[in-house]
Amino acid sequence: MPSALIIGAARGLGLALTTTFQSQSYTVFATTRSNMPPQEVDTGLVRWLTQIDLSSPSCGTDLASALKAQHLKEPVDVVVITAGYFGLESFEDMDWEGQVKMYTLSAIAPGFLVRGLVEGGLLREGKEGKEGEGAKVILVGSESGSVGLRHEKEGGGNYGHHGSKAAVNMVGKLLGLDLMGRGIVVGVVHPGFMRTEMTKGVGFDKFWDEGGAVTPEVAAESLVKFIVNDFGIDKTGEYWAPRGPGDIGTSDETMGKNLPTPLKLPY
Question: What is the 3-class SS of the chain, one letter each residue?
Fold first, then answer.
């Protein structure tokens, strides 16, 4: 039975990925910063790893220790890092602490988490090349991190959000290069514009209908399909939108029309 580790699984996309992988007969390990799993939903046989705090310098070793305590019989096959934070900003009203938090969760923690898993022997390794692929590691980013997609149509602002997501792209690229020899595949994804508490909390719910926002469950289904069927060593270090250009407001202006799905995004 294949296994998946979802980091940041207490709500939103992370929780939806947890239940989606479980429905496809994966053994699922899921993390939460809290000292207990979410109580509002039945997550069945999910193995919860509690008190995994991505703002802590020890997050990588903490995660490895918690996973080893689960007495794995085999290394993990899929890892999705989806924890994050979105603080709204404008040019006139920037938030230093908010930006530090966004960069820490989105772009600093993932490298430490992956290193902890690799050094702990917790990720399945393969051979370089298409045959014998190892684990697949997905960093959940956003189209907002693409410099190439930025356009006057949507303007500036949200410096920490855009900047931290751009940094995720670099982290994914570098991890892909560092782990290629182990056969471990790393990628960054824009999972889609979602109807979540995070986007509602910054007032983006007013754009849900116009922007084609979907539920986390729909986004999770598309992402899992992409991971299982489309994502491999030939795409390591790359940046993809599994749901295509539909919810990317500047795709026509920056990439043209009649774009494919899934869509490789420009850094």
Answer: CCEEEEECCCCHHHHHHHHHHHHCCCEEEEECCCCCCCCCCCCCCCEEECCCCCCCCCHHHHHHHHHHCCCCCCCECEEEECCCCCCCCCCCCCCHHHHHHHHHHHHHHHHHHHHHHHHCCCECCCCCCCCCCCCEEEEECCHHHCCCCCCCCCCCCCHHHHHHHHHHHHHHHHHHHHHHHHCCEEEEECCCCECCHHHHHCCHHHHCCCCCCECHHHHHHHHHHHHHHCCCHHHCCCEEECCCCCCCCCHHHHHCCCCCCCEECCC
Residue-wise pLDDT tens digits, 210-267: 777 789 999 999 999 999 999 999 999 999 999 999 999 999 999 999 999 999 999 9
Q: Find tokens 């909390």 and name the residue.
A: 201
* In the block, residue with structure tokens 């692929």: 133
Nearest by Cα to 72 from 33, 18, 121, 6: 121
Distance (Å, rounded) from C-alpha 77 to C-alpha 248?
30
> CB atoms < 10 A from the CB of 91, how many?
10
Q: Pairing between strand 78-81 and 3-7?
A: parallel
- Contact by Cβ (8 Å): 149, 254: yes
